[in-house]
UniProtKB/TrEMBL annotation:
It comes from Arcobacter acticola. The gene is purE. The keyword rRNA-binding does not apply. Residues 135-166 form a coiled coil. It holds the Pfam family AIRC. Catalyzes the conversion of N5-carboxyaminoimidazole ribonucleotide (N5-CAIR) to 4-carboxy-5-aminoimidazole ribonucleotide (CAIR). The lineage of its organism: Bacteria, Pseudomonadati, Campylobacterota, Epsilonproteobacteria, Campylobacterales. Keywords: Coiled coil, Isomerase, Purine biosynthesis. This is N5-carboxyaminoimidazole ribonucleotide mutase. It catalyses: 5-carboxyamino-1-(5-phospho-D-ribosyl)imidazole + H(+) = 5-amino-1-(5-phospho-D-ribosyl)imidazole-4-carboxylate. GO terms for biological process: 'de novo' IMP biosynthetic process. SUPFAM superfamilies: N5-CAIR mutase (phosphoribosylaminoimidazole carboxylase, PurE).
Length: 175
């Protein structure tokens, strides 16, 4: 196995159903990654160790998902020089707004790129784009991926324009 370039971490294994979307995208782009649980509040020593050692181990981007107080992405960003992408995980009490605000309200000097609530798929794409700056083969895969997205939208637009909108909705309902 090649060394992972991306670390996917989360505050609890209950975040894995959301964070798996980042893993799926990285698999699609054939980017090596690792996945683990690192709790900012329950395992601070593990958080410090992971954050300090990630660069030495070859990690180039960290995707950190957390719910509730969501301190994990910011704490990691305060320790490592690597780019950190925060994924606010939807919480039961505040629908993920608490997580989102905890991640985006970082003080100057400690940036965390933040995606939408439960936006792990976009976090995986952003990690691939960051890596694509250095790795041409990843950049080419990103270009092909975006070209395919455009083609899908163009096809949907053509289909909708050729049908009465009510018929199109019936087709969508069958999917």
């Amino acid at each position: 196995m090649k060394k992972p370039l991306v670390g996917i971490i989360m505050g609890s294994d209950s975040d894995l159903p959301i964070m798996q979307e980042a893993a799926k995208i990285l698999e699609f782009f054939e980017i090596e990654f690792e996945v683990t649980v690192v709790s900012a509040h329950r395992t601070p020593e593990r958080l410090f160790k992971y954050s300090k050692e990630a660069e030495k181990r070859g990690i180039r981007v960290i995707i950190a998902g957390a719910g509730g107080a969501a301190h994990l992405p910011g704490m990691v960003a305060s320790i490592t020089p690597l780019p950190v992408i925060g994924v606010p995980v939807k919480s039961a009490s505040l629908e993920g707004m608490d997580s989102l605000l905890s991640i985006v309200q970082m003080p100057g000097g400690i940036p965390v790129a933040t995606v939408a609530i439960n936006g792990a798929k976009n976090a995986g794409i952003l990690a691939a784009e960051i890596l694509g700056v250095k790795y041409k083969e990843i950049r080419q895969k990103i270009k092909a991926f975006k070209k395919e997205l455009r083609a899908e939208v163009e096809q949907k637009a053509e289909n909708l324009e050729n049908l009465e909108y009510k018929e199109y909705l019936k087709i969508m309902a069958k999917k």
